[in-house]
Amino acid sequence: MTALGKLFRTTAFKLSIVYLVLFSIGAGVVMTWVGWNVRRLVDEQIGATVEAEINGLSEQYAQGGIRRLVDVVERRVRQPGASLYLVTNFQGQSIAGNIIALPPEVLRQPGVRETSYERMGEANVDRRALARIFVLPGGFRLLVGRDLEDRETLRRVMGGALLTSLFWLIVIGTLGGLFVARRVLNRVEGINDSARAIMQGDLAQRLPLAGANDELDRLAINLNAMLERIQELMTGVREVSDNIAHDLKTPLTRLRNRAEEALRTSGSTEDYRAALEKMIEESDQLIRIFNALLMIARLEAGAERGNLIVFDMAEAARDVADLYEPVAEDEGVDLTLEADEGCNVRGSRELIGQALANLIDNALKYGAPDMPGARSQVRIEVRRVGSGVEMSVADHGPGIAAEDRERVLGRFVRLEGARTRPGSGLGLSLAAAVARLHNGAIRIEDNQPGLRVVIAMPAAAGEAGAGPSK
Amino acid sequence: MSGMRILIIEDDREAAGYLVKAFREAGHVADHAADGLDGYGKASEGGYDVLIVDRMLPKMDGLSLIGGLREQKIETPVLILSALGQVDDRVKGLRAGGDDYLAKPYAFSELLARVEALARRKSGASGDPTTLRVGGLELDRLGHKLTRNGKEIALQPREYRLLEYLMRHAGQVVTRTMLLENVWDYHFDPQTNVIDVHVSRLRGKIDKGYDTPMLHTVRGAGYMIRDSAR
After folding, report:
1. Among B123, B148, B167, residue at a domain's last position
2. CB–CB of A326 and B198 under 8 A?
3. Residues of chain B positioned with their CB less than 8 A from the CB of A277
4. How far is CA B74 from its chain centroid?
C-alpha cells in the first residue's frame, strides 16, 4: 500500500471527509437561506419606495392634474440614479417618463409586477424592473418602478460567495483531513513500530507518548503498563532460568561427582550404600530447591490466588510457633509469641504459615547473639496496624546491614557468614513473594540489636472492625 | 499390613516398572495400566485396595478417571501422583475424588506409607473407636486421657493429636510429611527437623522408664507405634 493510500484509509481521514460533506451541506443551506431572505428584504424595500412615490405622484395629480404630474415626473427623471417613471394616456401612449419600451400587456393590469424594459438613453438594453402600475382618473396610467440591477448584483455576489466559500471549505477540509490523518497516522505508526520492536524481542521498548494526554496517550500509557508487567514476568522467568543454571547445576555436579567417585574408588557394599544414601540426600536437597523456586515463580506470576480464605493471622502464627517451639527449646532459644486479637486477613493459611516458618527458621539459624553466654530470643508478633496486619519475627543476632536489606530478598542471595550454614537462599524470597501475593510487603528492620523481619498486609475487609484488644 | 492389591496407572513405563517391583518387594501385589482408559477399565472391575493414579495420562487424564470411578460408586481409595506439587493442584486433586496426593519426585518409602495408610483406612471397618489401644498404651479419646499400663501420662494438646494419629496407624509407617499434613495441616517443607523434635518429646513422655519402646523410628522412612513386646 502506498503512503497516500494508507493516509486515505485512516479512520481520521474518513471521518474528516464525512464531516466535510455534512458541513458543506450545512453551509449551502445557511447561505441559500440568507440569500433568499436578503432578496425578500430588498424586494420589500423597493416595494415600499415605489408605493411612497406613487402616493406622492397621485397627490400631485390630484392637485394639479396631468400637467403637474408630467412636470414632476420630468423633473425627477432628470435626477441621476432615479427610479423609473412612465405616464401614459388612455391609449397607452407615453406622455412622460424614462422608459422607452415595455411589454404592452404590462400597462393593462394595475398592480405590482416584475417586468423587462428599456431605459431612455440605453435603447435595446434589456433590463429588469419591479414596477407598479396605477390607473389615474381620466384613463391615465402611472408606472413607477425600480431597476433590479442592484438586486441582481447582490444575488450574483451571494451566489459567488457561496461557491467560493464551498470551494475553500472543501480545499481546507481536505487538507485539514489529510493533516489530521497524517498526525494520527504518524502516531499510530510510531506505536506500531514500537510494537514490532517489542514483538521482535526488545521487551524494554515502550510505546511513544505525545504528551498530549489524549486518548492515544492514555491508550499508550495503559499498554505500557501492560508491557511493564509482561517484562517483569519475563524477567522473573529469565531470573529463574539463570538461577537454575547457577544454583542447581552446582549440586547436580556434586551429585554426579559423588556417583563417579563411588564407582571409581569404593569396593565394599557398605561404601556403595553410604555413597548412595549421600546421593539421595543430595537429590532431596535439589528437589527442595527446585520446589521452592517453582513456588516463588508461581507466586510471583499471581497463581495460587484461587484458594484464599479469611483466617486469623494470630491463630496461624500460633500454629507455626507451636511447630517450632520444641526445636527452639532444644537449641536454647526462647521463642515467644504475642498477638493482638482480630487480626483477620484474606489469604492462604498454608502460604502464610510457610513464610512465617521460613522467618523463624532463619531466626533460629542466624539469630544467636554474638555475646557468649547470652540466651537467644526470637520474638514473633502479630499486630493490628491501621487497616493492616503486621507479623514480625525479631531476634538479637548480628542483623543485616542496611545496604544488604534489599538484596537479601533476591533469590539465592546468601550473605557472608551464612554460606557455611545449610540453606538455599530462597527462604526470604519466598516470604517476600507470599507477602506480595497477599497485596502486602516485607520489611527488614533493625531490631537494635538484631534483625526484625515484618510481613505487612491488609486486614480482611469487613472483619477489620474487631479492633485490637489486649 | 501386607498383601494389598494395588493398581498403578502411570504412562511412564520405567517409573511404573520400578513401582511394581518395589511394591512386590514390600509384599504387595501390583498391576500396571499404561494409559487412562486401560486404567479406568481395570479399576472398574474392582478388586483393588488402592489405586495410584498419575495426573497426566494419555487418552484420559487422571482427574477425569477418578471422577468417572466415583460416579460409578467405585470408592477404592486413590492416591494421586503429580508433577504439579502446588497447593491449588492438590486441592483440585482431592476435590476430584482423590484421597491423598503426592508430588513427584517422591521417596518410595513415602508412597508406600501413604498407600498402606489408605488401604488401612478402607479396611478399617471398626470406624472411629473411642479408645485406641496399642500394647499397654491406651488413649481415651472421650476423656482426652492417656495411660500406659494404667498409669496416666499428661500430654500437651499437640502431643495428644500427634499420638492419636500415630496410634490410629499403629503398626504402620507414618512419614514426617504425613504427620505434618495430618497433625498440623501444613503441606510445605519445614526444612528443619521440627517433626523429629516433636516425636522425640512424645517418645520421652510415653517410653521413658519402660523397657520396651512403643514409638519406633523407621530408618529412612518415618515413625511407627507398635507393641514390640508381642
Report:
1. B123
2. yes
3. 220
4. 20
